[in-house]
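Protocol step 4 of 5: obtain the predicted structure for the target chain.
Materials: sequence only (see below). No template structures provided, no constraints applied. The aim of this step is simply to have a reference model before the mutagenesis design in step 5. Sequence pasted as it appears in the construct record:
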Amino acid sequence: MMLDAQVGLTLGSLDLDVNIAAGCDETVAVLGPNGAGKTTLLRALAGLLALDHGRIVLDGTALDDPAASVFVPPERRSVGVTFQDYLLFAHLSARDNVAFGLQARGTGRRAARAAADEWLRRVGLDGVGNAKPRALSGGQAQRVALARALAISPKLLLLDEPLAALDADARGAVRRDLRRHLDGFNGARVFVTHDLVDAAALADRLIVIEHGHVVQTGSLASIAARPRSPYVAALVGVNLLRGVLHENTLELDTGATIALAERGAGPSLAVIHPHSVALYREAPIGSPRNVWRGRVDGIEALGERVRVRVTGAVPLVAEVTAGAVRELQLDEGASVWTTIKATDITVYPA
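Step 4 output (structure tokens):
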């Protein structure tokens, strides 16, 4: 692996203990709720925070190893960083912002500025070298920050919420450009994001951290198929229920039971896609095995689809058409019945 790190440190109430690895030419996205430790992880990799325990190795060289009294300061690490708010020097031009890292590493001013112009051209900003940051759009500022990080030819590129400061109009175009630059970067890439679309578009692998610890890692498809926590389930847009499996019945903590098509035993998780949840205003006719009474707790329109959150013994989110919401006369507080086919439920060990 190009990057192999065990990052352990305590910062305030956060106890961070994360293993992260990334190969050459691999992009890893780090996701998690606010306060999970995502930015702290990036700052430790960059050398802006020292480890309490663990080890950071980049391309075979130890950058931080408390047990061996090794700590390489940020300016001597082959690491490029772009920050969420870009942190461009307001008094410097775009050209001099990009040249800054090269000059800090000993490159002469003329050569550094020539290299900066080349990097600005590569990121599509040819001709804006003299502009100050205040004259740049959000997308242009993001490209300048990326050029500054890449200009030093780092072995590791770190990006903290690289698209978060952009408006919706600029986000798609900049995302496509960023993907192209990441694909052309000869090294490991780690970026932090809250946005699953950004992760899906830019990353080869995802790492989800909560409360300073890794809860799940893998491809988007594997994580979406078997989420391990409520946060991950909400992130990928599915219902996640936890209980104890007895044969083909899952008993939840609430005492409610769910009939399954699969058999098993022990603590288990069940995934139910919102589009598999059917809603009724009256108890459905017949004898469906999975039917529960609940109350509408929230309605969220997503174009022609609507997500309806239902509370009850089995809390669920259903996804139905806007027409179905009108036909059922659904609104917050309405009493409803939910049903799910046993064959539409995926169950696996907790």
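Step 4 remarks: The chain has nine helices and 19 strands. The chain has two domains: 3-227, 237-349.
Proceed to step 5.
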